[in-house]
Amino acid sequence: MHPAISINTLCLPFAPLGALADRVARIGARGISPDLEQILAFGVRESAQTMGDAGLEVATLTHRAFAYATPSEAEAGRERLSRTIDIAGEIGARTITMTTGGRGALSWPQAAERFAEAMAPYAEAARAVGIRLGIEPTSHLYADASLAHRLADPTTLARRAGIDVTIDLFACWVDTDIDTAMADAAPLTALVQVSDYVYGDRGLPCRAVPGDGAVPLDRLIPAIIRAGFTGWFDLEIIGPRLQAEGEDTGLRRAADFIGKLLETA
Question: What is the rounded distance in angstroms from the CA atom of residue 237 to the CA atom of residue 190?
Fold first, then answer.
């Protein structure tokens, strides 16, 4: 498996982190992307040891949503993110992937300003310990968890807050300005999440194995490489298609497809 490919634990059925790490290693990846709650449930020190013993690097730690829309939400969001930064350092994660959190009753400009203000101190704290905070674009169906839907959105927000961007290709491949947006995001890109979409799928999660759908990965992946990105390509394939095929088989097939694109880019 190409050494730049990692596997997000969201691809796999629920299990203790130790079992997930063993499975990711058996599939053949060198990187794993666990969820914060999985780390907390398994134990921070135990998580670091079990992933290290499996020969895995932590590609990113998934924090999920920040919070900022109200003072009480912002206080809770800052406390949680501060702990996540500490945990990322303890397990060796160099990036944290998150959504912005929902905007509630705020307009987009109001929410963007409040997000940047709430995030700025933690951006500085993360940089001080060598950790990049990456916010990702999401479907508008997750508006309760995100302010950023087109790739240009997290790039704009990241610049205001002094943080970075995670490019989730499933969320943004249909952007009319995707090529320009990827070039603009390139200096800020901390991680790239990869999956595919099959025309006609309607219900989320409906991600497909790369190569099986309509996302022009054979164009987008080389473009990301040419823009200078040298980090992890994280397989984040969620939904019934991967489950029906079998996670191990589907993830190896996905890695083979993406690996060939990386080798020839």
Answer: 19
Q: Please state, in angstroms and rounded to a whole number, the distance separating the CA atoms of residues 7 and 125.
A: 27
- The DSSP letter of residue 229 is -
Residue 74: per-residue pLDDT: 87
Q: How far apart are the first and last CA of the chain?
A: 16
For residue range 206-218, list pLDDT tens digits in order.
999 999 999 999 9
Domain 5-264 has CATH 3.90.1150.10: no
d(C-alpha 206, C-alpha 190), whole Å: 24
Q: Is 80 exposed, middle or buried (0-12, 13-18, 19+ CB in 10 A)?
A: middle
Give yes or no for a contact between 189 and 228, defined as CB atoms under 8 angstroms apart: no
Q: Which tokens is 80 given?
A: 């949680």
Best CA proximity match to 161, nearest among 153, 151, 169: 153
**Alpha-carbon span 230 to 262, nearest angstrom:** 10
Q: Where are the domains of the chain?
A: 5-264
pLDDT digits (tens, 9 = 90+) for 20-37: 999 999 999 999 999 999
CA–CA separation, 137 vs 191, rounded Å?
A: 12
Whole-angstrom distance, CA of residue 81 vs CA of residue 129: 14
**Sign of the four-CA dihedral 213, 218, 220, 224:** positive
As given in the structure block, the two tokens for residue 66 are 């920040």
Q: How many CA atoms lie within 13 A of 129 on its CB side?
A: 20
